[in-house]
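Thanks for the sequence, V.! I ran DUF3073 family protein right away. Repeating your input here for the record:
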Amino acid sequence: MGRGRAKAKQTKVARELKYFSPDTDLNALERELRSSSSTHAAENAAADVDQGDDDDYDDYADWASHGR
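Predicted structure:
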């Protein structure tokens, strides 16, 4: 029975989210993207060092070339 009000409220909130466009601080966005990209680059470099030259497919490639 109370579904009508809940649905109306959800529709109202969805409409507000869809059409509301706050002012974007592009400088803050640029800072955030730069800091996260440098963080990800450092994490990726550390992951590459940890893995070394091991490749998951090397064993399969050896098996496939010798097995047939």
